[in-house]
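Handout, section B. The chain below has 187 residues.
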Amino acid sequence: MRPWQLPRVLVIALVTVLVLAGCQTTPSTLPAAEPRPAAECRWSVGDRAPHGLLAGAVAALEAEGFLIRHTDLALGLVSAERTRILPGYGDRYDGWDRRGMFGGIGIGGGRGGVSSGVMIGFGGVGSLTRDATQLERVSLLAGDGEVRVSRDIQVIDWRGELAEARSASSAEFCRRLRDAIEAGGVS
């Protein structure tokens, strides 16, 4: 049987397999935290008991306003997060319902109509409900004779879409957390 005599369905299936085979490639590098965590986010446990260290970490994180999401004594893990509203952050590129917070002056058409006038007052419900939320997550792992802290921050817009994400394991944050843990959780 010659190739041009193959059933048409088989030829289509072979071409589809060959085209899609290139879609399943692996990345050349694995994802990495950018920027890299500061050196202060890794320190020696010393002679402190892991249970006492984790209890101090929980107290320190709660004092900073974090909500403890998960702890595991066997792994030496504490995970926490906190959220806050970012007033005025909103979606900078969304032209829908673009007004100032306390009013505005409008002349001309918008959304297919012609209008003019002045709006005075508090800028409507839209500007109150379209603020972004900042989600800050911290993980502390105490094991193998050292403590490692990682922190990331995500900004989620009013639609629930991720607007920004970054590693935030800064020297200042880790130093402050370590001092609070060593002081017994009081910051």
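Note. Helices lie at 8-21, 50-63, 124-129, 171-182. Compare this with the example in section A.
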